[in-house]
Structure formats: C-alpha cells, structure tokens
Amino acid sequence: MQNRYNRRNRRKYNLKVHVVLETKYRKALLQDGIDDFVKRAISYLADQNDWTIIAMETDKDHLHILLEYDATERFCDIISIIKQRTTRWLWIRYRNILTKQYWKKHIFWSDGYFACSVGEVSSATIEKYIAEQG
C-alpha cells in the first residue's frame, strides 16, 4: 500500500487520468508513421515534464493515454502542452500531408478532449470511508 502513492515534499498523491484526444474533424491521420511520431513526441514531453505515461495507443482518428502526474500541476495545462507542441512538431514534419487536410489553419487536434480520473478504489468505498469518519 505504501508504494502506490507518490511522495514529494509534504504531499502524498496518486493522480492518474485516462485521456482521449481526437484529430480535428475526426480525420483518419493517426497512421502511416504519424501515429508513431505522435507517441514519441508525447513520451518526450512526459520525460521533460516529469509525467508518467502508463499506457498510450492510437486509432486512426484518436489517441488514448493513461497518464500519471504531480499534484501541483493543472491537468488542463498538461493537455494544452501536449496539443500545442505536438501540433507544431507535426506541421514541421508532415506539412505536405496536413496542408491537404487542414488548408486554412495549422491545426491537428479537435478543440476538446475526454478525461476520466482513474482511482485505486471505487467511489462507493470512498463514500463509506468518509461516512464512517468522526
């Protein structure tokens, strides 16, 4: 039980989230090497920012990530970094392909995202624990 929590300074935490990012207009662009490039780029960002990628996989038009991060970080900032930097790097490397798909703007990801926290115990267990306090 001790090892499932991260410890830094005076905080103890275990923050994991399942994230799904979609390509803009659900275009099937995450294939033919672009998928591997995106995964390498996100792994690089994770290393640089001290996030842990537990699992990551693509389908043709979306990406799933199971991500662990520090309690001092804002999740929306993590998503912004991932989307902004990967979009920039993709346009540098795959400009010829992307200009045929997105001819007006340098975009790649849709505006939103899906995120779901992943806990070690169920909500019912936590509710019971809280109810039994005091």
Automatic annotation (TrEMBL):
GO terms for MF: DNA binding; transposase activity
GO biological process, one term: DNA transposition
Short name of any one Pfam family annotated for the protein: Y1_Tnp
Domain spans labelled Transposase IS200-like: 12-133
SMART domains, alphabetized: Y1_Tnp
InterPro entries listed in its UniProt record: Transposase_17, Transposase_17_sf
SUPFAM superfamilies linked to this entry: Transposase IS200-like (SSF143422)
Highest taxon, organism lineage: Bacteria
Protein name per UniProt: IS200/IS605 family transposase
Taxonomy of the source species: Bacteria, Bacillati, Bacillota, Erysipelotrichia, Erysipelotrichales
The encoding gene: tnpA
